[in-house]
Amino acid sequence: VIFADKTAAKYAAGTAIHWYTHSPHTNLDEPHKLHPDKFILSTEACMGPGVRLGAWELAQAYGYDILGTLNHHTVGWTDWNMVLDTSGGPSWIPGNRFDSPIIANLDAHEYYRQPSFYAMAHFAKFLRPGAVRVDSPIVIRNNTEATVGAFRTPQNSTVVIVVNNDETDIDFTVEDSKSGKLTTKIDPKSIQTYVYYD
């Protein structure tokens, strides 16, 4: 509605979406097609209820969602709460407790990096400002449960991220006409990142 109004559209640079409103990720294609000059930012990711220390499912969900939204026109992805205490708070809504990438144990004066923290690192560490999504140079041989994304960085590197949420290994090949070919596999329920330079 805002973007259809020429006057109002001047004051809106883009749209923030919550991660529970865009499943499947292909739902983002039509809004981008209608307004390619406006950004889409993925926001307010969280899982709950409560804290589950060491829960790998949270890392899998983060990896799948981050890569899926980046493959469908988002310019970034933000968490709702990067740090919460061991009860999953604080929260302005009573009883509203969630998990987060870092859990602070205030009594012990220590913190725990959750698996979701490391899932986010695959993106935050390798996709620096200015990176853009490109066609993927990867071919998956025996599975359709993997999510794959390829990006070019300002440092002239190509970053390929693969999220395997399946129960089996995936054989795949990364092939680039300039840089060569790599055939390898990704373990079940895992995330891998490959970086190569021209």
UniProtKB/TrEMBL annotation:
Record GO cellular component, one term: membrane
Highest taxon of source: Eukaryota
Keyword set, alphabetical order: Glycosidase, Hydrolase, Lipid metabolism, Signal, Sphingolipid metabolism
Residue ranges of domain Glycosyl hydrolase family 30 beta sandwich in the record: 130-194
The Glycosyl hydrolase family 30 TIM-barrel domain, residue ranges: 1-127
Catalytic activity from the UniProt record: a beta-D-glucosyl-(1<->1')-N-acylsphing-4-enine + H2O = an N-acylsphing-4-enine + D-glucose
Enzyme Commission designation: 3.2.1.45
GO terms under biological process: glucosylceramide catabolic process
Signal peptide bounds: none
Presence of keyword Nucleus: no
GO molecular function, one term: glucosylceramidase activity
Entry similarity comment: Belongs to the glycosyl hydrolase 30 family.
Protein name per its UniProtKB record: Glucosylceramidase
